[in-house]
Amino acid sequence: MNNRTTCRFLSIVSPAFSKRWRLKKGTVATAEDLTRYTSECITHNSMYSKRPLFSRRWDSCAYIFSALLICLGGASVVAGPIPTWTGPVLRGEALAPWIQAARTSRADMVMLGDSNQLFAGFGWDAGMIRALNNEFGIYATGVHWCGEGAGIGRGTGEGFFTISPGGISSGFAFSGAPPQLDIFGRLSNSNAGADYLYLQSGSLPGGRQVGMGVNGVLDTKASLRYWLTDGTFPTQGALAEPWGAAQGIFQGSYTPMARIGQPPWSTIAIFSAVSTRNSGESFALRTQSYTIAADTARTQPIDFRFAPTWFTPGFQSPFFALWQRVEEVSSNGSSAHTLYAVGGRSARFMSTTMNGASDAMLEAFFEQVRSLLPEPKRVLVRIHQGLNDRNEVLPSIRLGILPGNSPDAYVDNIAATIARIRAIYTSKQWSEQGLAFVIVTPFNVNSPQDLQLASYRDAAAALLAEYPRLAVVDQAGLIPYATMVSQGYFANSVDRNHLSNAGYVALASAELAALVAAGTSPTCIGDFNNDGGITGDDLAAFFTAYECGAASSDVNQDGGVTGDDITAFFVAYETGC
Question: Which pTM does this prediction carry?
């Protein structure tokens, strides 16, 4: 909350004194001013209010004094106690703006997790896409790496998929690109994937087509736009490769195309050839799009390819392809992306990986995520960890907490990932108004739930203090263990750490439904802390949220946190709800 907004608030809540106490631009209130204002506030209520002492109006006098201190920069509002679990979701209302955007325009979800994120080609990646489609609709695929984790199926999607080479016989490499391009394709650890496709000058692709297919979720009858992020190679300066260009060979080009994705594989469009060279002295990333018109007669799957043929008529090296996605041009809804999915590793490894990734890579990735969104570009980052944290022995990332598998270490490691993503927003000067987080603790693996996992759930409530637009979900509170067994939601009769495809869909749907219910349920605005009463504690809770710019303080639901929310809150507070 900025100082001028707080000072303006004084005039809003106490119009009787607005002329006397409105601070002019450049004036400084003194300690005497604070004392006199509070005294007159109390006198005014004594003379004109029939409410008993310590009523809400008396509370406002006391809190106006605190607000004046904030205006002067001399104090801050003390946060209330950490909420306790009364259901599967904590502070779901923080996600209300994201839910509203997904329902009425566009909003994206970025997912990080363990092996469950992509398990058996499905995982949360597929389950959450299905859930999002049922709730809001899907307007685009996620941002997919063109190399798909060296062919292992990273971010495989539900209703769309990356067509990726299966090995070195394809001619494509998944590493070895020039450092200026390689930096964009890695999360700093080989287990997290080196996901681009690369052809060095002089090399030829083998008999594999590459690109992206659409076979569900998106409407193949609609106008679709294929987005491809590739790298360009310099023709000038010390980094250029003049031998190929001078000889007129391997000058670098490809010819994107779209076709029906099943026999007879009819061509929909062949686009103009694209050069992979630039006229400068350095390597660069670029993103271009290729659009096919709507066709109501088109009912088959669609493939977007880098080239119409497998061999050199379609490709001339050098070539570097990083990301691709397909957009249903006129559609709204949601889109889901997998950023990190590593099995057998804890939240500590995730945080180490994210902090080891280059700023350039993460900035470029989130720029692509945000690129198709309207302002304020609503992005929800979903983090699912805990199963592997039970085996962690190393100290936590930020505070060095031991033992490494303790609840405090678990929370600290997740907080480090949150801080890393927020730092990317700061470095790009993006407003965090559109950025939200949801931390998801694991599903039931036994009955009763594993004690260590239960301790992570209880500790996760502390993460609410890390960021105002953050919610926590306890998956164990969504579907009972007995139901998961009887419905076949586990991967098999022995493995309780992974789910079947039906299990991922069921839990993702239950999770999203719980978030939507918590984020859209009607609440009493005056009872801001939801403790069943309207007291001075609600004033403190509101201004804590307001000072941080929390989405929950947007009480008039206009999409922003402004002085108008202070007015709306005090109207509700004084009227009793």
Answer: 0.79
Per DSSP, the three-state class of 382 is strand
Residue 511 CB neighbour total at 10 angstroms: 26
Assess whether the previous peptide bond of 403 is cis (omega < 30° from 0).
Answer: yes
Token reading at 6: 């707080």
Starting from the edge strand earliest in sequence, which strands make up the sheet with 435-441, in order? 89-90, 470-474, 435-441, 379-384, 106-113, 333-341
Which residues fall within 8 angstroms of residue 30, CB to CB, at 6 or more apart? Answer: none
Residue pLDDT, tens place only, 410-424: 999 999 999 999 999
Tokens of 534: 């309207």
Bridge partners of 110, per DSSP, are 337, 381
DSSP alpha helix (H) spans, 317-394: 347-356, 359-370
Q: φ and ψ at 464, to 5 degrees? A: -60, -25
Distance CA 101, CA 108 (A): 9
Any long-range contacts for 248-254 (C-beta under 8 Å, 24+ apart)? 249/316, 250/201, 250/202, 250/316, 250/317, 250/318, 251/275, 251/277, 251/316, 252/201, 252/276, 252/277, 252/316, 252/317, 252/318, 252/319, 253/315, 253/316, 254/306, 254/307, 254/314, 254/315, 254/316, 254/319
Average pLDDT, the chain: 81
pLDDT in tens, 333-368: 999 999 998 889 999 999 999 998 889 999 999 999
User: How many residues belong to the chain?
Assistant: 577
**Tokens in use for 172?**
């494509």
